[in-house]
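Predict structure. Input: MFS transporter, 333 residues.
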Amino acid sequence: MINVPFALAIAAAALAVRAAAPEHRESTREHTQRLDVVGAALVAGVLAIGVYTLVGVPAHGWTGGPTLAGLACTVGGAALLIAHERRAARPIVPPEVARSIPVTAAMAILLLTAGGMFGALFVATFLFQDVLGLDPLATGLRVLPMTVLMILGAPLASAALRRYGPRRTAVVGSVLVTLGIVALSGLTSATAWTGSSVAFALLGVGFAVVMVTATGTVVGDAPPGYAGVVGGLKQTAMNIGPTLGIAVAAGLMQADALEAASSPPLRTLAATALTAQPALLASAAVAVLGLLPALLLPAQPTPNARHPEQTAADPGTQGRLPRPRIQVHDRML
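Output follows.
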């Protein structure tokens, strides 16, 4: 309920502020399309069945009938979605976007990294309060280094992206996030302050690097006329990743808790202590998978790359690529 007043204030501000309409061009009119309602319904259905199946694994087991049926429905729904998208006149993901390897890789690294990090944050709530004995306020204060360094790390990540290129920058970001999650799994009461500060600092810097790199890639490498489409896909990946990551972490904690204690899952100190570490290591494994799509990103910096936050904020870049700009380095002179 605390969030309701803020949401209402944002809604009122959105209605009160009148922004200038973006400039219409032939490229934007050419690629304007209606929402694929059937495709959107299939996406929602596949995600709902998949998450529900993962959450039900502790109760039914991986070989149980409901689990196998849920997995089969998830796979079947995904196949039906792919078949529909290939036949649809206006698919959710246009073929021009789907064929762009940098854009697809950026979406994948966002999904995996966000899934690993938010799954770890879910587990960390129980770790700090049930195992380390912190109250909610003290737990929130421990997370502040992540928030601060995420803000401070964004401009540094933008500079690194322009100098070292998307591939190396994304790899470093994925490694930092993974190390931060692994550090959380080794926390004890004796190392809580120092260990948690280091762990959340790594998470903040690493996720800022991944976010800036992915944003710059999907906007800068989007096919002409599809910057708005890839921007929406980026946000979708940022929602799907945490959903699946939390489902995996919660499923592992519940499954291990049922074996560790006879009381309800996540209710006893012993159960939480025994289940937090495996769930955090599983989240680290999800995050480290982000290295695979990171290696598919361009190795060299884009000569006409702009700040991702500037590209996203400029209405003139919605639906078209930024105009090339010539940059001359001092040492070349």
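Residues 97-320 form a domain with the Growth Hormone; Chain: A; fold (CATH 1.20.1250.20).
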